[in-house]
């Protein structure tokens, strides 16, 4: 037996072989590199091309960036320092302009001694918005959110605090009118009263009241006119107030677009499509060149406010589409359930539909805001001093004339930081919604 | 909750903003500051310094008017305007006056309904070209690529010039001076054309200014001056005579240094009338008697403003040329204060 | 028996308008309508009052006035003497051009970047992430300005192409300068019409073949070669026609006729005897191109007098607009025989070739710039690139999420069936992903079109810069100009979304 076996099997190992290291190419970094970078001819090609792109970009950017000049009073000084340190013709970034003018790029011509107001305003705003943005916070805090716009206005523009207070009072009056009207003449009368009374109050009473109160107790911060606003502060304020103001309008438009009432439906669609069909820059020019034609003769308010109004109308059309998506995403059972409970239209919207729809829409709203925030740079074309506009003004001084890339890099990086973090937030929200809906 | 910001802003801002009514002077005095439309940034003429204070030759005119009307040269809100928005800003009453190197033309005066109150800088459109191209006359520019700022009269002048001389060119319209400068330096255009003052100012900031020449041809007349709305003659007079006071002050040797002394009274009746120690010129245009003193003190007389912001000692380095006093062969000629 | 109670005969009461749901919606709508009309009336009344106060009127007559400014890129003939309406039209065409080009390039970039972001190659995936996030999170305006400046600074200027300048033509045919890219321009000779007709016919053929192949696949399960046949159809018929014409007419010589020349003298001699050469040319024709090449080869300076066809050129020659013209001998003979106009025409000893169906005109460095060829301006390229890269970043995200939305089981099942990877992509994944991709893609196209209005930042003369910029500025007609411009963009948007919605409906999953 053993003989035949020996004939068929040519080799029999008689001792155990030593344990061996796994092949060197199958572990650690090398394996990773092989699998991720060089796993096929296409992959190798892509890797080589990418490396070339990276090398090309870095070889041009790094020397410019690393050989930067921070301490100089003007571009010519910058050039002198560069010639001294790195020789003429060396690529060198003159970031001295940022060192000298960063505050203008951030705050425009806002008085230096009032910077704290701007910063505090944004902190208050963020704090005020956090109950809206992070649902884990107690709901009672939403009242603080409601007060935030007034506080922010009082901080940014200043002036007598009675102006915002008198305006805010209008909402209390509206609520009062609603409950009074409800008792007196039912729901319809209450709704009409809740709309008409505050408008009459704002038109005729709020101004005199604010002035009277100011006369009695002149409390408030020094008034800072809108012309002093600029830079990132301007972009942020335009973006934030437009998105906030456009929320109620956008929700109404979205509801209007879903409405079965023919005229309401068509008007909403018409408004949304017209606004979305025309570029923002045309609307901004409308704000700057034409809005005065449409208002009663003699009315005139400052450009920043006009831009905010236009940006509000603009973003409300986009918000409407986002909210419409949210409304459409709800299962029809929710609508039917609300109806079967005997709720009327507004009740069902307020209690059942909108809370769910808005929650779904928040990532979309944040994305709309990112878009709007970036688009605020277009105000440079109508003479407002946003960061790009300010970069032009800075270059118009004799010290910094001729400087180019440094300002754009700074502005671009700041925008990137803001928008990137917001887009991360919106992705976080989307993930969270996905988890909750699972 | 959210509408409130809008309405709050409306009440606060809307109430403070004045109407584009007839009596601009009353509005300005009630408001306590002058709204002056300026360029978003033009070297030597209007630019903010690192403290955010606006400075420049055009800005100087605004400050002088503010000083004449309100007694305080710093009581000015500068409203930045682009070439496209400037006229609407003025027409709608957003600004009380425009001091934004605007060319005085027939249509702007009559069709657009503005009133030019004088000329604070006599300019003309010129061409700048790298020396190495060896061009000595604008007529040799056949086929050249020309960088030009849009939204100004320069576009029309350029088209007319090349059409009249029957030579072809390729226009490269650029939105701002900074972009035009960058394009020109990179060689994306052979020629840069704008007002000669702008060319000089731009060239002064180049790394190698001597490598560029400004061609001798000036192809247009560009009288730049402040303007106000049609129909408010009192206000127009104030701006016009403030500018005239600055010019006359230079002619009569009134400077910011000696004005306090001269304001005590001199034996030159014209000076006395300007400075309000004799006659009642101030009253006639609805201002204090020392209006001109304030205006001149704000930044000095015309010559001082010129020297400080755009003169030969500055990087802009413009010579007086046409903008010298008529006594020195220039065009500045203030009507008599009488 | 139940008694049928007659419903009470209701008389209509006014309060029903409010409390009866049947009428309430009507009431609300009527009230809303009245309010809306009142609002419009208020706006219009204000506008009228304001216009009156400013002493202006509402009049589109300015469109007929002389524009007075020049535009560099004109797709239709335009001079500074043309009207504002013509300038607006030039701007509209420029807007359409850049929007169209942008949509195509953005799709290409977006699809590539979206697929590469999902690539297993770590480096490429990261690089694409940087691209997408970088472009999505920085304002478009900044990118437009930056790309424009980058292009002017990193490419050579025309004068660098002179001796010792360090720059050279790409393949000897394409000049990449910081004023734009100059590419050869096609000049059409005899038979060009036939060639183009054949080319169009072969495109139709490709479409028909693909259709046929698809039907075969569906009806008989037979796979026909699509790609190879398409490629062959694309090139071969057209090339055959080209070479046929080139062989027949391309080598044919034609005479150069000069007014007042000695018979059979050479072109150079004639040029010396004259104070200047005026040459009647038909821009864009192969024969004229060859004549110009001939002139340039002899280093002669000449003025080109353009005409649209040979009859016109001949008439121009006859009336003395030019003193040199080149004609096929069949046409030239009778003219010379007849004479009868000033300067006896004579045939020169030099001849030129009639030319192939299509010949390419090479850009040549002239006085300040390159001349000849097609000039793609820097402003166009920068705007085009910036819009495409920016929109491409958004499209990349759309494509990525579209591909991710396809269940992994789909591709696994396809692989299990033994399909090759590219067929899996084409037949299984993409058709499903497209349904997710197309609707947001449409809105990206719309965004790109609207964003093209930022053209002013690079000085590209689109409708915003001509009608909405210079025209408004020169005439002070902001109300009318803005209205026209808004209308244009609105119509364009509606048109695009309408067209793409039709497409979307055609690929939508048919649900029952």
UniProtKB/TrEMBL annotation, chain A:
* Source taxon at top rank: Bacteria
Q: How does it sit in the membrane?
A: Multi-pass membrane protein
Can you say where in the cell this protein is located?
A: Cell inner membrane; Cell membrane
Name the Pfam families on file.
BPD_transp_1
In Swiss-Prot or TrEMBL terms, this protein is called: L-glutamine ABC transporter membrane protein /L-glutamate ABC transporter membrane protein /L-aspartate ABC transporter membrane protein /L-asparagine ABC transporter membrane protein
**PANTHER family xrefs:** INNER MEMBRANE AMINO-ACID ABC TRANSPORTER PERMEASE PROTEIN YHDY, MEMBRANE COMPONENT OF AMINO ACID ABC TRANSPORTER
Task: Enumerate the Gene Ontology biological process terms.
Answer: amino acid transport
Q: List, alphabetically, the NCBIfam families matched.
A: HEQRo_perm_3TM
Q: Which GO terms describe its molecular function?
A: transmembrane transporter activity
Q: Which GO terms describe its cellular component?
A: ATP-binding cassette (ABC) transporter complex
Recite the UniProt keywords alphabetically. Answer: Cell membrane, Membrane, Transmembrane, Transmembrane helix, Transport
Give the record's family classification. Answer: Belongs to the binding-protein-dependent transport system permease family. HisMQ subfamily.
Q: Do you know which Gene3D superfamilies this protein is assigned to?
A: MetI-like
* InterPro entries, alphabetized: AA_ABC_transptr_permease_3TM (IPR010065), ArtM/GltK/GlnP/TcyL/YhdX-like (IPR043429), MetI-like (IPR000515), MetI-like_sf (IPR035906)
The cross-references to PROSITE patterns, in alphabetical order and at most eight, read: ABC_TM1
Positions the record marks as coiled coil are none
Automatic annotation (TrEMBL), chain B:
Superkingdom of origin:
Bacteria
Keyword check for Lipid biosynthesis, yes or no.
no
* UniProt keyword terms in alphabetical order: Signal, Transport
Extract the signal peptide range: 1-22
Solute-binding protein family 3/N-terminal domain location is 33-262
Q: Name one GO biological process term.
A: amino acid transport
Task: Give the similarity note.
Answer: Belongs to the bacterial solute-binding protein 3 family.
Q: What is this protein called?
A: L-glutamine-binding protein /L-glutamate-binding protein /L-aspartate-binding protein /L-asparagine-binding protein
Task: Please report the organism this UniProt entry assigns to the protein.
Answer: Tranquillimonas rosea
TrEMBL record, chain C:
Ranges for domain ABC transmembrane type-1 come to: 92-500
The record ties this protein, via Pfam families, to: BPD_transp_1
Cell location: Cell inner membrane; Cell membrane
Gene Ontology molecular functions = transmembrane transporter activity
Q: Name its GO BP terms in alphabetical order.
A: amino acid transport
> Where is the chain membrane-spanning?
23-44, 96-118, 130-151, 191-209, 229-248, 482-503
Family label = Belongs to the binding-protein-dependent transport system permease family. HisMQ subfamily.
- What this protein is called in its record is Amine acid ABC transporter, permease protein, 3-TM region, His/Glu/Gln/Arg/opine family
